[in-house]
Amino acid sequence: MPDVWVYNGRAYDLTEWIAKHPGGPFFIGRSKNRDITSLVNASHVAPEKIERLLERYALDRPAVPEDVHPKNNAPAFLFTPDFNSWRDTPRYRFSDREDLLHRLKARLKEPALAARVRRADRVFNLVAALVLLGYFAVQGLWLARPGWLAAAGWYALPVFVLAMVALRSALAGYGHYAIHRAQRGPTRLLANAFDMNYVALTLVTIDGHIMLHHPHTQSEVDIKRNVFTMMMGLPRLLRIPVHTLHKFGHLIVGMPLRIVDVAWITRKVGVDEAYGGTRNAMAHFAGSALVRILLIGELVIFVATGNWLAWTLQFVVTLWVSTFLIVASHDFDEDVDIAPEKPSGPEQGPGLCDGEWAAHQIEKSYDLKVIGNRYVDCFLSAGLSSHRVHHALPFQRSGYANIACEDMVREEAAKSGIEWLPAKSFLTDRLPKLARGYLTTPSRQAQDRGWGVLREHVSPSAWKNGFDYAKAGFGIGTV
Question: What CATH number should be reported for the domain whose range is 1-73?
């Protein structure tokens, strides 16, 4: 397949630009053989400057189906079998200077608002540093077990577990925004805080989150809505234990193997292709490896000191809270027809979507609340308390910057006729609905064959699926 990037229906070869990209070479390298129109317009304050730069690398011809990888250069199992990137990638018009996205970007230039955003970014970073100190302090206290804590006995265990769940979610919230920043310098390491809740691997989810989820929210391209794809093939009563074991395998074996695998593939194809040189590649791999060493090291220390129960409980609760948080801010659990009508043949290319891109982002996203304070919830919700602003302005550097901009975004959204709905409670609204939907829905096999609960769980094939899924966590195939 030729080295081609598609923008506004035209073909470009950005190979020479990979190492020069100010946001880091990863983004350009991974977007090869994709339509990057929405990505460029969503991720840059001034995409018109990017358009001028792109013209240096134009191939002076329209894009053709052969320019676009049918599965977006991503694992095929993340998409439906008949998905085709050329045909099914949504396309929006970004040329209207008066649309919502352009109005939002224009208002970000207001001096007072720009100053508030800069202050918000600094405070966000400071709070993240305090969270990190608290994270190590809580674990250190538990392992040291001073007299006053030892006297609390079993009463202290639930407090420790809840504290670790909150702190891991908070660190993932910082990582959530770090992966949206330019992947250069210390950010390449700090972005791996996204991994601290046991769910993600930043090395690969930067691609799925920033380049496939944000530009194409709730379309067939959006692989975030397929978080539970594999698990939904299991019988209902097996999902919690099997998925937990699957993720434990990811923690101790699967993720480290995946890091090595990606490093080997990158070396094999040439590091310049995706990372812009050996130094950039090693920085990405080193950050992921350090976080893996930290997570596995914690497990070893807790088990060696007889604190295996405390570690296990915080692992299981953190894993499931974080897994549901991932899908809580969108209606992935509902069947919604949001894709543009497909053209009759792939030679016609992808069809244009009705409506504005920013309006679609706001309408298809939820804000979440945990305790009701947006600044605290920004961390407790892994960065999702001001989620609609985040989706309309994904290039902003922090959740606090989104909170600073929320009144402005709400005002401009109202001009476009968009109702600004109240934030949804994760604990009392989204979590119960998601748990019912994902944990009580019959497996696909049971639905296809009309099986009841008993038949679903005694089927030899069901147990085989469960065994295979748990075992897969100890390999690299599902990461």
Answer: 3.10.120.10
